[in-house]
Amino acid sequence: MSTLNVNGASQKERKVSALTEFKEVTKKDAESLLSLEFEKLLNTAPESEKQQLNEDFRGFQRLFSKFLKGSGPSVLWDKIERLPENAVRDYASLEPPENSVIKEMLNKLVVVKLNGGLGTSMGCVGPKSLIPVNHDFTFLDLTVQQIEYLNKQYDAEVPLVLMNSFNTDEDTQKVLRKYRGCRIKIYTFMQSRYPRINKESLMPIVSTLNTSETEGWYPPGHGDFYDAFAKSGLLNTLIEEGREYCFVSNIDNLGATVDLSILNSLLNPSKGPHPQFVMEVTNKTNADVKGGTLIQYDGKLRLLEIAQVPKDHVDEFKSVKKFKIFNTNNLWMSLKSIEALVSRQGIDMEIIVNHKHLDIGLNVIQLETASGAAIKDFENAIGINVPRRRFLPVKKTQDLLLVMSNLYSMKSGTLTMNPLRAFPSVPLIKLGDYHFGKVRDFLSRFASIPDLLELDHLTVSGDVTFGKGVSLRGTVIIIANHGDRIDIPAGAILENKIVSGNLRILDH
Fold it and tell me: Is 131 domain-assigned?
């Protein structure tokens, strides 16, 4: 029972009030101190960079202010509504366009690839888009081939736009020279450069604008696309050219190709108004339970990410029965809608707080946003439930094994599933990080990529190598214990086998 003081307020209430007041004071203090820090940083910048940096800092301050004000979950679980009919359309219901209008349609399209990431997670230096993924072609090579094929096939002029980060811009620019002879216009723009913040002091960890201090800076996620695209001037230029829609996707998603049926549904809807935003979703499997999903909330279509889910509802969120679809991050948007929303600061994306521990021993936070979260700010937004083939991301070397294998054939930069594969689903592959996690180590362990056409599941752990012409079928588990080495001989056929540390081969 609380004790009342002379003013009638309980000690507990006074304590809560004092804590709230303390938090408010420290927040105000943090905002004003950050402004002072930014002024100091700008004074160390070359005159030619000051305007750009000032814009970046203003963008960061908006995020920072929102981060400080944030309290409680951004989604109240009980307010989630059932998705209305037609909020998510079935891909099979879309009508392909007549051949006679394809050129005109393509000339209204811009393809944007998010190219801000490095290949460090796979042990590579430089932009991830420059890692070879199939027949020595890189992600960027395949993208250029896909669009050039469209332009030649339909006598069209689809441009490619790359959103680079300060980490990837220089190396990407050098490589772009090799595409000069291709029938494709390539534009680039830079996303913002934001300072990493010390978790305790909430202040930038850098004291000068020395670009060699790369650990002090970060690109703020693909939600920065809208502001950075508009700020670059490219958005306005492309609208003036008569472009109407952009197709935005991650450059490491090899399934994210231009789809004429989706484009037709945007430009020539069979009924209702033109959608201003389309998110491609696909059916969840047990490998996708953490992926963001679409919900109806406050009368609008909204992306729900696992970070927004209250802890006691996480299992429900992961349920394939309740939330059957997830976001592929293949997004189609009206260019004029982006322009109008950015000009009035009408895009309000949830902040993702990314905690990192740096090699120099500091705990920092990065404030980021996700581009799909803007769906609620666009008019007539819909989802389209697409086939799984449109989601083929390469995040780890186990994904690389799939796309390098005979499971896929390549034509004009597009990978398609081998028709000899009996099932449309891809095998589940798990490779041990220590021996297979880096691309160089991964490649050194295969004399040739095994035949995976009849594979369902592969787990490899420990010091394992594969000879030439190996076939893996059904469920194969290969585990070399610490200190052991297993060499799978050339021409071996492993079907439903467990291979253990002393090279015993057992039926699975």
Answer: yes
In the sheet with 325-334, reading across from the earlier edge strand, the strands are: 88-90, 381-385, 277-283, 325-334, 245-250, 109-115, 160-164, 186-190
- Pairing relationship of beta strands 408-411 and 414-417 according to DSSP bridges: antiparallel
Distances 343 to 336, 375, 433 between C-alpha atoms, Å: 11, 17, 45
Question: Residue 485 is inside which H or E element, if any?
Answer: strand 485-488
Q: How far, in Å, CA of 239 to CA of 228, rounded?
A: 16
pLDDT confidence of residue 309: 85
CATH for 424: 2.160.10.10
- Domain match, 258 and 366 both: yes
* CA 191 – CA 194 distance, rounded (Å): 10
Domain that holds residue 46: 22-70
395 is in an annotated binding site: yes
Q: Give 458: exposed, middle or buried? Use CB within 10 Å, 0-12, 13-18, 19+.
A: buried
CA angle 357, 358, 363 (to 5 degrees): 45
**Does 72 appear as a known binding residue?**
no
- Average per-residue pLDDT for the chain: 89
- 27-31, 53-57, 150-154: which range is least confident on average? 27-31
**From CA 104, how far away is CA 154, in angstroms rounded?**
9
Comparing CA positions, the residue from 389, 400, 397 lying closest to residue 432 is: 397
Cα(39)–Cα(49) distance, rounded to whole angstroms?
14
How does residue 5 score in pLDDT terms, banded at 50, 70 and 90? Answer: very low
Q: How far apart are CA 125 and CA 120, in angstroms?
A: 6
132 with 278, same domain?
yes
Where is 343: in which H helix or E strand?
helix 335-343
| DSSP state for residue 500 in the 8-state scheme | -
Active-site residues, by number, are 395
Cα torsion 444, 446, 449, 452 to 10°: value is -130
Q: Is 191 annotated as a binding residue?
A: yes
Q: Known binder of ligand: residue 222? A: yes
Where does 260-406 show beta strands of DSSP type E?
Answer: 277-283, 293-297, 300-304, 325-334, 352-357, 363-368, 381-385
* pTM listed for this prediction: 0.89
Q: What is the rounded average pLDDT of the residues 347-352?
A: 89
Q: Do both 28 and 93 map to the same domain? A: no
Nearest to 326 by CA among 375, 390, 281: 281
* Residues 490 and 343 reside in one and the same domain: no
Which residues, in sequence order, are CB contacts of 365 under 8 Å at separation 6+? 196, 197, 199, 353, 354, 355, 356
